[in-house]
Design goal:
With 591 residues, the protein is of the alpha+beta class. The protein has helices at 58-61, 309-322, 336-345, 382-399, 419-435, 478-493, 522-537, 578-587; strands at residues 11-14, 17-23, 43-47, 66-74, 83-88, 94-99, 102-108, 114-117, 127-135, 146-151, 154-159, 173-178, 183-193, 196-205, 210-216, 222-227, 230-235, 249-256, 262-270, 275-278, 281-284, 287-288, 291-295, 326-328, 348-352, 362-363, 366-367, 405-412, 441-445, 463-466, 499-503, 542-548. Bound molecules: (2S,3S,4S,5R)-3,4,5-trihydroxy-6-oxo-oxane-2-carboxylic acid. The site of (2S,3S,4S,5R)-3,4,5-trihydroxy-6-oxo-oxane-2-carboxylic acid has 11 residues, from loops.
Length: 591
């Protein structure tokens, strides 16, 4: 699926703004055909944004079930005879869409795009009513999983991941038009041959047509041309995409009509670079790369997981300020704006699916919540795995052309020390490699499944470890933590694979100070990070350090969380804690 673009042959219209919005606690809207007319009793709701924190109402914030969104859009007059598509960048966690009275598409999974060809249901120059029912329920067959439990206050959503279950239309919605004969897909894979770059491209179209491609450099100069639906372009003396140097070429693919006119044109940015794993090294363009950065979240006051350009640019400025060269899209695929911006900024990404919380031994990221078996016919089962497989397919399809993405993470902290886990994950690793042989594949290992016990890391090209020595274990005892951590890490290092520490962190209440570095104080966060860094620096196989987390973020409430997770190096409104300055001294040799 190609993302909407304005090109010489395509036009798009963004449907953001205030939509009508209604909760459906009785679950009656579908049978009562709420899509059949203006939504009764609706309030207004901002799109894109999570709906949860917008209303000052806990019934909205904690709501579980169907919510309805509706808007009316006029199809531009000039779009007569064109193919007209309605495109959602995401709907969390699933949605069904109607154009007028006609159901046009349903989609499962909260963080990947979907679209419907609505040409047959609209007329150029006329308005069309768009109604969307978004459902935010998590079950054992959703990614991420969850369960609805009855409480005296009514049904409550429970889940095993440690961030608030924000939902709704978080990302832009588009209406766009193309020629009836159009490009449907473009894939690029780049390589290096001495100083030259190679770009393997594959295009697909809705009907047989002549295809032409032109590759231009950042100044607009043509550097290579090709014809045919697929082929290889050669770029003499290529400017490589590299960490810190987000140099992009522009590949324009064109479909030609019978008379030789261009009927469709689509632009794909291309960063020429390679990614390989060799022994315990992670190589970008053949050179060892050391990841510095964070696990992040899409999480902001009021708009929840709504994308915001100003915050995105600011976050990347802070990444540069602190000396971070990378981050992980923990724990779901991020907005495509973020991926595009990372490409242009030369920021390296570990791209993660929404498969978080497949571990019923953890509660909200914290040890101890019991009561369910993770992998069983009644919990996470074969049907769940197929949903997970589809989430991987959609992630790889969406993000495979981004040079910033160097590693797939197919799950965060699943149960991984059991036979059930091994059986569940083996085919998912195979699938990911089949979909994209050009990148390494991994998953993020949890502390409950330490070296010697994990049965899933055997499938991974890179070991990604989340460890909280000195926080959840050896709390406040950094000397003991340092010994235990180093001992475990030495075990992993024997595997001869690169190790990225994908999480290490300590909750820190901003402004809390203590002379002797007590847990929760800013001093402790600094001392905790220092201890970790001593351990990493003694272990050659460690090729990266991602602190948990870039910023404080919202979670469900609980005795372990004070107004959310406070492991941020920045507060939720992006003020630095003492640890931010300490990290800057470590990561920026020039600071
Ligand atoms: C983890 C999880 C992350 C949590 C973090 C914590 O291991 O991957 O989602 O937020 O721990 O702070 O407990």
């Amino acid at each position: 699926m190609l993302r909407p673009q304005d090109t010489a042959t395509r036009e798009r219209k963004r449907l953001d703004g205030l939509w009508r919005f209604a909760l459906d606690p009785a679950g009656e809207g579908r049978t009562a055909r709420w899509f059949g007319g203006p939504l009764a009793g609706a309030r207004e709701m901002a799109v894109p944004a999570s709906f949860n924190d917008i209303a000052a109402d806990s019934a909205v914030r904690e709501y579980v079930g169907d919510v309805w969104y509706q808007t009316e859009v006029r199809v531009p007059r000039g779009w007569d005879g064109r193919r007209i598509v309605l495109h959602f960048e995401s709907a969390t966690h699933r949605a069904t869409v109607w154009a007028g009275d006609t159901e046009v598409v349903s989609h499962e999974g909260g963080y990947t795009p979907f679209a419907a060809d609505i040409t047959a249901h609209v007329r150029a120059g006329e308005p069309v009513r768009i109604t969307v029912v978004v459902n935010n329920t998590l079950t054992f067959q959703s990614i991420p999983p969850g369960v609805i439990e009855d409480t005296p206050a009514g049904p409550r959503q429970r889940y095993w991941h440690d961030f608030f279950n924000y939902a709704g239309l978080h990302r832009p919605v588009w209406l766009y038009q193309t020629d009836p004969v159009h490009l449907t897909d473009i894939t690029v894979v780049t390589g290096l041959d001495g100083g030259d770059g190679t770009v393997d491209y594959t295009t697909a179209a809705s009907a047989p047509a002549t295809t032409r491609v032109v590759l231009r450099d950042a100044t607009g100069r043509t550097v290579a041309e090709g014809s045919g639906a697929s082929g290889t372009l050669r770029v003499p003396d290529a400017h490589r995409w590299a960490p810190g140097d987000g140099y992009l070429y522009d590949l324009e693919a064109q479909l030609l009509g019978d008379d030789g006119t261009v009927v469709d044109s689509y632009h794909q940015s291309v960063g020429i670079r390679t990614v390989t794993v060799s022994g315990n090294r992670f190589l970008i363009n053949g050179e060892p790369f050391y990841f510095t950065g964070f696990g992040k979240h899409e999480d902001l006051a009021v708009i929840g997981k709504g994308h915001n350009d100003a915050f995105m640019v600011h976050d990347f400025e802070l990444l540069r300020w602190i000396g971070a060269n990378s981050f992980r899209t923990s724990h779901y695929p991020y907005s495509e704006e973020v991926l595009d911006y990372a490409d242009r900024q030369g920021i390296v990404l570990i791209d993660e699916t929404a498969a978080v919380g497949l571990n019923m031994g953890l509660g909200g990221g914290i040890f101890g919540a019991q009561g369910y078996e993770t992998f069983s016919p009644d919990t996470v089962n074969d049907a769940s795995r197929e949903v997970h497989a589809q989430a991987i397919r959609e992630l790889v399809e969406r993000d495979r052309n981004h040079p910033s993405v160097v590693l797939w993470s197919i799950a965060n902290e699943p149960e991984s020390d059991t036979e059930g886990a091994e059986d569940y994950f083996r085919p998912l690793f195979e699938l990911t490699r089949e979909l994209d042989p050009s990148r390494p594949v991994g998953f993020v290992n949890v502390m409950l499944s330490p070296y010697g016990k994990c049965r899933v890391s055997q499938f991974a090209d890179v070991l990604m470890l989340n460890r909280y020595y000195g926080w959840y274990v050896n709390t406040g005892d950094l000397p003991a933590a340092e010994r235990a951590w180093e001992e475990e890490l030495r075990g992993w290092a024997g595997e001869n694979k690169p190790i990225i520490i994908t999480e290490y962190g300590a909750d820190t209440y901003p402004g809390l100070h203590s002379v002797d570095a007590q847990p929760w104080s800013e001093e402790y966060q600094v001392a905790y990070l220092d201890m970790n860094h001593r351990v990493f620096d003694r272990c050659d196989a460690v090729v990266g350090e991602h602190v948990w987390n870039f910023a404080d973020f919202a979670t469900t409430s609980g005795v372990m969380r004070v107004g959310g997770n406070k492991k941020g190096v920045f507060t939720r409104d992006r003020q630095p804690k003492a640890a931010a300055h300490a990290l800057r001294r470590r990561w920026r040799k020039d600071a």
